[in-house]
Structures
1.
Amino acid sequence: MKGLVFTSFSEMIEAKFGLEFWDQMIEETNPMSGGIYTSAASYEMSELVAYLVYLNKKTEIPIPDLIYTFGRFLLNVFASNFPDFFQVKDLKTFLKNVESYIHIEVLKLYPTAGLPHFYYSEPDENTLIMNYRSSKKLYKLAEGLIEESAVYFKEEIELNTKPNSDGSVCKFTIRFLS
Amino acid sequence: MNVQNLHREIDLLKKKVERERKARKISEELLEEKARSLYQANQELEKSLEKQRDQQMMMIHSEKMASLGVMSAGIAHEINTPLQFIGDNLVFLDDMFREFMVCVRSLNEDLKKTKFFEILDVNYLMEEVPVSITESLEGYERLQTIVKAMKSFVHPDDEKKSTIDINQIIENAVIVSNNQVKFFSEVEMTLNRNLPDIMAFEGELKQVILNLIINSSHAIKEENKRKNRDLGLISIKTSFDDNYVHIFIKDNGGGIPEKIHKKIFNPFFTTKDVGVGTGQGLAISKNIIEKKHKGSISFKSHEGVGTTFLIKLPRGDKNE
């Protein structure tokens, strides 16, 4: 998993729970990386899972909700680190660009990045269906990202999330209300 | 905030700074690694670009040579036609003048002393005209040999292998190069008359041999100046074994300096002055011998002594 996810996660924990909490989290989960993250490297996904389990234990917030919250946080990190991806006319264009442009550009920089795949369909002018597929089963992260991108583009949407049983496939139906 | 909390806060910040420092180090190492791999990729790209450029230049050069070949063949053909009637006429004049001389010799002695004979200077004509005709016929024959060699030398389009007499090719190459070589070197040929014919690309093989002879003459020219001698020597020898036909082209030029031994077959490598050599000859020769004929080209050279090139051509594919 790309380092940017971990650097963003540590930022989020620090911002929401404080430095001490993050420090304790590292000490108690004892990750192989020692909690030292850089966006250019890759790390084991198990480290993120261990953090989420720890967080869940400490806050009693369900893990899917934690992942969703992290997705929303991550969107703003992306917006600030990669502003070019956000220079589009509206949310729909941005979401459609994820597979055909953003992921291609990401792979140019990080050829080994394990990105999810999205397959699109547009049943009508105001609806976009994004079919998520990933072995990492982080559809809640994608959900948070989609919701927060609507906030970023100041657009109102209605999002319907329909995952399969193990979370490796998910159908996002986005209705553009504004 | 009490002092204890402050100390705790400072400790946490110190740990954070330490983590950041280590993360930065990892980033720098990754950056270095990336830069190295980029550099390597760039080197490989440059190398392949250079190779492509060389191949392109070789192609252009080959095409130029081919055009030159077509032109030379055309000129040789054009010269050949008037040359033939010059030859025929010379033979006719020779015959006629011989008959004329027989007639004159059979004339009465008194008639030979007439004013008419004196004005025409018949005795002088009878002495000099046969000499002139003989010299002209010799010149004609030499011209005919050169044109024949030129015609047989340029076959830019022969893409198929044919049965080749290597000795014949060498003899033709020596004739064609004679005008360039004769001022600097003698050429000695020791050709094995039992040499088997081989299957080869005739035009290209001729190009290789001619190129080696010309190179030898250039080396000899320089050495002649250095040693203050008039002529050097190019020795060409052929032989064969069970698998290969061998061609040795030896000169007593200045030799090839050891430090450039590995470079001489590289495209565009030349030690000749600008305009004298393109540095393509040996690269093309190597390509022709090794790639097209599955043979080998090698050399032995000693500075101040000379160079011997050895071409080995397989004789096994004669029945291909």
2.
Amino acid sequence: MKQIDDAIRQHYTSKRMSDGAVSRLIETSPEPRGSRWIPAIATAAILLVGFGLYDRIQDKSDVTQGILAEVAMNHAKGLDAEIFSDTYEGLQEGLTELGFDIRPDGNVTRQYALVGGRYCSIKGQLAAQLKLKSSSSGDVYTLYVTEQTEVLSSIAPLATVSDGTPIRLWGDATRFFALAGPDAASPTR
Amino acid sequence: MFDKNVKVTELVQRGYRYALSLCNDEADAEDLVQDAWVRLQSRNRKAELPLLIVTIRNLYIDRYRRSKLVVVESYDDEGIGTDPDRPILPHEMEEAMSQIRPEEREAIYLNVVEGYTAQEIADLTETSRNSILSLIHRGKQKLARLLSDPKEGRA
């Protein structure tokens, strides 16, 4: 079996994530809790704990930052769709594992044409990653859709830029959305 | 943030290879490592291989909605081997690896590449030591058979 063991080692040691992917992973990960500005945070924490707010605010901030980091990184990777369809019904049929409707609201469907999609995850939860193309500029956008949860529903609608990627987060009664792309965070979107 | 040095990069690569041993798909493996890494960092957890492995494994099980990796097969120790004079070509190993079960790939990877003992793998994966020994043995037997006759796996 030594020959097989050697071949197995060779098989796996030849596998590497690209240097760029590793760099993006390390650089775009969210700051761990309390790693910077410790004195200021400690002072603020003492005040916040007094009002019983610290844990809720910190947890929500961690979740939001984590989601923004994941969305920015996934968008930067630009992975191809695994199922190509220009209709939400067609794509929904291909993504059989999803237990929620992937069609976003009219604001999105009017502005962007659907190219296709694939499975992904947000905060470890099964999600759909949709590739969209702007009907006016032709720019490529990534839309993430996942089921609404108690944690995700606590995140207020947000438009920001994370690691250079404009991102908009919002939700409805049953789903959570994240849109990443050139002007996703612009107020006119 | 964790130190951006060679050790961190190597840790990510080892996590990637482990993820690859589970899902046997490079894009999925990259996603698993990314999600695990973000999860560990956002929870301010220490960057070490066993924790990364467990996090990747949990994400893999969640994502593919597998209730548990269970071994129910017994094994027999038949001496099937490859011809030592014939080199194993990379594409043959690639093909053979795609033919064995994820839990066999996982156990073989952790044992052969990472050097974990069967007991250590059993502790990491919350499986019995005997099951791990069975997975390693059966997985290698299958690989040997597939590599001795590369056409078998495609039949």
